[in-house]
Amino acid sequence: MEGFKGHALLFPFPAQGHINPMMQLANILISQRVLVTFVNTDFTHERLNPKSTHAIRFESFPDHLPPDHGRTLQLPELCESLQKYGPNHVENVVTNLMEAADVPPITCIVADGVFSFTQRIADKFGIPRIAFWTTSACGFSAYYYMPLLIDEGYIPLKDNTGSNKDQVITCIPEMPTIRVKDLPSFMTVTDHSDYMFQYLLREVQNARQASLVLLNTYEDLEGPVLQDLNAKFSDKVLSIGPLLRYSTMDKIIGTSGNLWTEEQSCLEWLDKQEEASVIYVCFGSITVLSDEELAEFAWGLEASKRPFLWAIRPDLVVGKSAALPPKFVQRTKERSFFVSWAPQSKVLCHPSVGGFLTHSGWNSTIESIISGVPMMCWPFFAEQPTNRRFVDDVWKVGFEMKENVSREDVETLVGKLMNTEDEYGKEMRRKLQGLKEKAISSVEVGGGSHCNMQKFLQKVLNPLDS
């Protein structure tokens, strides 16, 4: 193929929150005349149903799990299978592409941060491995300091009672108010041999071997944490976000990167609502609730008297299809709209949306910030508790919810979140507007993320340069 200046192999972890930012990165690479080969599992590939073009090629391999396996809902088994079978499959893809006559040779591997086994493959072919961690910088930092937290006795936890969950951790630089309960959930276990505990401990330390570490964030949002990480990683950590601010990926790639079909009809409903009046509710692609939790959220929203848009996945409730209380649906039918999956970036940018009830996944968090929408945070797992803490206590652009959700708490926090008249609400929105403006400037020519993106592109196009 002529006209391409490089060829990048992109390999995300097969979960929605990892695929989306990798797709956004693919879009940017293609716009810079870099051919992209996007590798994923057969299971995920079939759900994405992407189409190869002259600029992006899709390759997939079996994850060796049964068809009815929960995948991301049974995360240790998925990770174990990918670690066992992934290396040979990915190496075969690279080998075939290196020998192919109709495509330029691969110039770098951009792999998910939790796939450090790609380092051996990159070394074999003499190309750089770039680790893309799809976490926040604060989440990545929490993982990085796992050995220190073990030495200091914070993790693993002594017992399951949660007796020290509110203890403030004092040993992580630039994260002075983080508590034990704000650490990523994979770290707050009682068994040192826990699979995910050991997996993340290994993977984050292996990040040192990568040529670069990419983070979808920006200096004005997480500057102190980024500076500390770069002191530890010899300036190899590049904040290149927010990726969503560069361009719209479907214009080039032709796929949104979503594993669910986006229901655009909700945008027409939003058009009919008053400005900043709607609370958007979405718990991401992996969070699961109990029947009781679903009911408490529902009745809290009903009691708030606010209009709401709720993206409610069919598999949101553990072990069954999500079913809302019929009386709740009846009582709120004049001010509610339900979809299975929403076009989230468009929803958050819509002028009718004034608040976001979220699981605090990093993609959702940064999308909300760059859209100027305050959040109420109910994290489920991974580094979501860390993101929640920064939203509530560091950036002060949202509220922390109690772990044991109640309708009273939901009603109260919705009221606080949507209040644009009191001084705290006004200040919260002023801060969000400032962070939004700085996000835009960060990806413009001369901005911090734009400069880091150029460093990344230089590594892709000139892999032998130091």
UniProtKB/TrEMBL annotation:
Presence of keyword Transferase: yes
Keyword tags: Glycosyltransferase, Transferase
EC number(s) on file: 2.4.1.-
Entries under Pfam families matching the protein: UDPGT (PF00201)
Coiled coil regions, renumbered to chain: none
GO molecular-function terms, A-Z: quercetin 3-O-glucosyltransferase activity; quercetin 7-O-glucosyltransferase activity
Family indicated by similarity: Belongs to the UDP-glycosyltransferase family.
Protein name as it appears in the record: Glycosyltransferase
Taxonomy of the source species: Eukaryota, Viridiplantae, Streptophyta, Embryophyta, Tracheophyta
